[in-house]
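Appendix B. Chain record.
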Amino acid sequence: MENYFTIFCYQCRAFKNQTISLVMNILIVDWKLENEFFLENELRQKNIEYKIFGIPNYTIEDRKSKIGSLKLYFKYFKLAYTAIKNSEKNDVIICWNFTTSLACGYLCRILHKRRIILALNIIAHQVGKLKEIARKIFFSPVVSMKRYFLTVNSSIYINSYSERFNISTEKFFVLNDAIHTHEDTLQNTDEGYVFTGGEAQRDWDTFFSTCNKLPEINFVCIARKKNYDQTLITPKNVKLLFDTDQDIFNEYMKKSRMVVLPLKSRLPCGLIILLQAAMMKKPIIATQTPSIENYITNGENGYLVELGNSDDLAEKIKDLYFNEELQFRFTTQLFEFVHKNHSPKQYTKNLLEIIAAIKLNVK
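Structure tokens predicted for this chain:
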């Protein structure tokens, strides 16, 4: 349940035949432990200079309650101000967090600063009609800026976001999430239970219905309490935990036999957990969504199930749980696939190409 809130600022210079050279002036703003953010390591290997700023007074407790989340929004604005203050005219501010990109946009308007803003992997799940209208009004002053751009995890999302928030499709780029480490450094163990967990947008109704259909199998679930429906009845074969530390979360996942991602929406969610599980060489069953399909091909390196279909999920859990040969095939093929196609190196290359394209087309 880890999130990075990152801002990069950089300048590019176009030369003849449209070759792009990066001026060594990059700011990276993030909360993290030193040397543990994959993009920082990649930039260092490319000898690109950077500085790091942290979210002011960040604490994981801010993500565990609604009041904490409200405090976090104020910290996003302070973070955005820091980025704008430490950047120059026409620098590119790349926001790992969509909320921070909105803060940057508003501050650029208020302070009359000329910056290019790139919001990485916009995620805005559908809400009620009135909230959706309020969002559209709130987003509009920023997303309408000529120097505001976004990435999505799949091209399928572009038209949806464009229509919902009146954003030109020309502002979108496709950028798939990457694994956060180069090597598989996590010991693979199997204590026989099925694991699921994550920050939000988990379909607990469907998942618990599935668990009730499989009494012979034990499950461990870790949820964010503020997003959890407390009226749900926990099945007897489920161990339910809330708001664990990241190390405990990883430990439970590491000791599981397999990982299930029952998702509540077709919009991007569950990708951080999916990639962690892939690195741990855990077989994965996930709800079929456009972003999940970037990584899992049904029956080849994992199983995909229909949204909200507990029968389909129960059948595939049972099939995979007792089949060691299939588990090995799924984990081996997924591990190799993400290393080849979604490595930190490939992600960084794709990101730099997007920035170069933006700089060539923005005057």
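Further analysis of this model is presented in Appendix C.
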